[in-house]
C-alpha cells in the first residue's frame, strides 16, 4: 500500500487544442465539470508523478515487488494480472511497475533478470511467455525485430505490417479517445490514467489500442502510437511500435483480426477487470462514482431513474458512447477483410 494520497484524475487533457476541440463539438451543458476546473486539476497534478524518477526509486520498487516477494515472482502470470490495478489503490499496478525505470535507464534489465532467476532457482515457477522472464524475452524480441525490419515504425514498405485502408484521421474521434471522453468508462478510465500517471496495464493498452483501430474507431494505429509515444513514461520506440502493430492486427505475430476486445468488460472478460466494486472506474471517471456497479461499465443502459439518483445524466454529465460498439465492430470487420482480400 502507498500512504500518499492518490492524485485527482484529469477528466480531459489539459492542452488548449484538445480542450477547444471538445468545446467546439459540445454544448456548454454537456459536461458538469467546467473547463476551468479541468485546468485547475491538471495544474495540481503537473510535476507530481506516481513513479518518481531515479535509480534509488527503481531499486526500492525492485526490492518491494521482486526481491522481497519471491512467491509473487514464482507465481507471476502476466495474463492473469488485473488491468484495473490494486483494488485498494487504483494507481498501483498488479504487475511490478518496473517498466518506467527500465525504459529510462534507471534500472538495469540484467539486474531484473538476475533477481527473477534468483527467486526461481529453488522453487516451482511459471514459465515463459507468461512469467516475468517471458516478459523480458518479449522485450528482446521486439528489439531484434525493430533492428532487422525496415520501416518498423511505418505502415508503408514494412514487411511486418499489412497495408489496411484505415479511415481518414478524425479529430473528434481521436480527441475523445485521447482525453477519455468516449462514453465507454473502461476505455476512458484507462486513457485518463495514462494522462495522469503516464502508465497503463498491458491489458488496458490492448483494449484502448483495439478500440481505436480495428475494434470501433477505425483509425490508423500510428495515430495511437504517437499519443502513447508522447504520454507513456515507459515509452520505448521498439516496443511501442511493436505493440501497436500487434494490437492493430496488422503484424505476422498479431492475434486474428476478428478477435476484438469488448470495451464494456464483465467479470469473465480476458481484460481481467475488477467489477464488484469497480473502484478503478470510480476513481478515474468520478462522474460515475455513485453509479451502481451493475451499470457502471455501460452507464448509457441505466434507467433514467438510476442516472438521476447517481447524479450523472448520460449525455449531459458524461457522454453517450461515441459509436455503437457492435455496429462499429461489424463494419470494421468487413472493412478489414476487404483490405486483406485486396492484398492477395
In short:
This protein is mostly helical and about 350 residues long.
Strand proportion: under 5%
Highest CATH level, the class of the largest domain:
Mainly Alpha
The biggest sheet amounts to: none
**Low-confidence sequence ranges:** 1-16, 18-35
Relative helix content:
40-55%
Give an account of the 3D structure.
- By secondary structure, the chain is an all-alpha fold.
- The chain is globular.
- It has helices spanning 16-24, 35-45, 55-67, 70-75, 99-103, 109-120, 132-148, 171-179, 185-197, 202-215, 221-231, 237-247, 279-284, 293-296, 304-309, 325-343.
- The chain has two domains: 1-50 and 151-344, Orthogonal Bundle (DNA Cyclobutane Dipyrimidine Photolyase, subunit A, domain 3), CATH 1.10.579.10; 55-148, Serine Threonine Protein Phosphatase 5, Tetratricopeptide repeat.
- Residues 1-16 and 18-35 have low confidence and may be disordered.
- The longest helix has 19 residues, at 325-343.
- The protein contains 16 helices and no strands.
- Helix 7 packs across helix 12 and helix 11 (221-231) runs antiparallel to helix 12 (237-247).
Amino acid at each position: 500500500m502507498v500512504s500518499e494520497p492518490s492524485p485527482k484524475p484529469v477528466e480531459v487533457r489539459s492542452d488548449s487544442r484538445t480542450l477547444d476541440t471538445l468545446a467546439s463539438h459540445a454544448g456548454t451543458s454537456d459536461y458538469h465539470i467546467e473547463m476551468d476546473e479541468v485546468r485547475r486539476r491538471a495544474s495540481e497534478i503537473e510535476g507530481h508523478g506516481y513513479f518518481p524518477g531515479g535509480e534509488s526509486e527503481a531499486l526500492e520498487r525492485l526490492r518491494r515487488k521482486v526481491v522481497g516477494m519471491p512467491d509473487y515472482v514464482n507465481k507471476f502470470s502476466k495474463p492473469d494480472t488485473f488491468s484495473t490495478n490494486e483494488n485498494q489503490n487504483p494507481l498501483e499496478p498488479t504487475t511490478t511497475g518496473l517498466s518506467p525505470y527500465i525504459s529510462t535507464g534507471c534500472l538495469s534489465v540484467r539486474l531484473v533478470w538476475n533477481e527473477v532467476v534468483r527467486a526461481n532457482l529453488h522453487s516451482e515457477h511459471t514459465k515463459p511467455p507468461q512469467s516475468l522472464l517471458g516478459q523480458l524475452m518479449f522485450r528482446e524480441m521486439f528489439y531484434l525485430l525493430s533492428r532487422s525490419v525496415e520501416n518498423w515504425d511505418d505502415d508503408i514498405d514494412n514487411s511486418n505490417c499489412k497495408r489496411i485502408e484505415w479511415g481518414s484521421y478524425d479529430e473528434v474521434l481521436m480527441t475523445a479517445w485521447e482525453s477519455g471522453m468516449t462514453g465507454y468508462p473502461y476505455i476512458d478510465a484507462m486513457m485518463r490514467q495514462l494522462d495522469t500517471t503516464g502508465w497503463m496495464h498491458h491489458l488496458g493498452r490492448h483494449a484502448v489500442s483495439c478500440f481505436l483501430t480495428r475494434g470501433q474507431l477505425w483509425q490508423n494505429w500510428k495515430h495511437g502510437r504517437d499519443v502513447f509515444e508522447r504520454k507513456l513514461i515507459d515509452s520505448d520506440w521498439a516496443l511501442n511500435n511493436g505493440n501497436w502493430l500487434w494490437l492493430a492486427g496488422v503484424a505476422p505475430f498479431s492475434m486474428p483480426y476478428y478477435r476484438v476486445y469488448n470495451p464494456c468488460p464483465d467479470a469473465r472478460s480476458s481484460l481481467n477487470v475488477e467489477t464488484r466494486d469497480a473502484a478503478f472506474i470510480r476513481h478515474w471517471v468520478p462522474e460515475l462514482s455513485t453509479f451502481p456497479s451493475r451499470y457502471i461499465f455501460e452507464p448509457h443502459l441505466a434507467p433514467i431513474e438510476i442516472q438521476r439518483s447517481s447524479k450523472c445524466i448520460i449525455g449531459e454529465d458524461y457522454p453517450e458512447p461515441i459509436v455503437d460498439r457492435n455496429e462499429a465492430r461489424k463494419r470494421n470487420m468487413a472493412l478489414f477483410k476487404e483490405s486483406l482480400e485486396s492484398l492477395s
